[in-house]
Each structure stands twice: as C-alpha cells, then as structure tokens.
Design goal:
There is one protein chain. By secondary structure, the chain is mostly helical. Helix 1 runs parallel beside helix 3, helix 2 runs parallel beside helix 4 and helix 3 runs antiparallel to helix 4. The protein is elongated, with a radius of gyration of 16 Å.
C-alpha cells in the first residue's frame, strides 16, 4: 500500500520540520538542555532529530534535489553546533555534526528509495 502525499500533507511536513528546527534552537538554549542526553545517547538523539527533520523536508518538497536537502539539514546542524559554543554549560562537538549529516543522508535516501519503489508518491488532484 502506497502513501500518497497530498499538497496539504506536504505543507504539514514542512511546518513540522520548521517547528522542529525552531525548537532545537529555542529549547537548546534553555538550562534543561545541559546534559539532557548523556554519551552515547546524545548521538541517538541527534540522529533521530535530524533524520526526522530531513525526512519531513523530503516528503514536504515535491520537486527537490536530495543533495540540496542534505546540505540544508547539514547547515542547520552546523548552526546548532556553533550556537552551542555560546551557551552556558553547552559545547560544540564535531561528532554531533557528523551524526546530523549521516542522519540527513539516511533519511533522504530512504524517502528516495520509497519513492522509487512506489511506496510513497504524490497525490493526484481530481479534475
């Protein structure tokens, strides 16, 4: 059974991706974010968060370049790590950034694979 992504669903996916990015920066600046996920669980948290953002973007943008989406999510990851340098109790970690990039690659590739297999497609408008 295929999942057909309607224009409304695409807009919801994009809105959720934007909301997640906002919350990463907003909540990441709060004191509760310090040591929220201890090693090595912080890498899993990064993988899930950035993979979800990338997957939502891949579903939300009908005609897109996979490379552009991966670069966009990677840029968000880089900005997040740079932002953490200036937050008390937080630190920047290159392995977190690498995890973000790998998560984006995996998520976008998975959506592309599902599209190629016909398991995800664009909903057709009725005329």
């Amino acid at each position: 059974m295929a999942l057909f992504v309607s224009p409304l669903m695409r807009r919801l996916c994009l809105a959720c991706a934007v909301l997640m990015v906002f919350l990463l920066f907003y909540l990441g600046a709060k004191p509760i974010a310090v040591d929220l996920f201890p090693e090595p669980w912080d890498k899993l948290a990064h993988f899930v968060a950035y993979g979800t953002i990338a997957g939502l973007l891949a579903l939300g943008v009908a005609e897109r370049s996979s490379t552009s989406l991966i670069l966009l999510v990677s840029l968000v990851g880089a900005l997040d790590e740079w932002h953490q340098v200036y937050l008390p109790g937080r630190s920047s970690d290159v392995t977190d950034f690498i995890t973000d990039v790998v998560a984006a690659i995996v998520a976008v590739t998975l959506v592309d694979w599902l599209r190629l297999r016909g398991l995800v497609g664009e909903a057709r408008c009725r005329s």
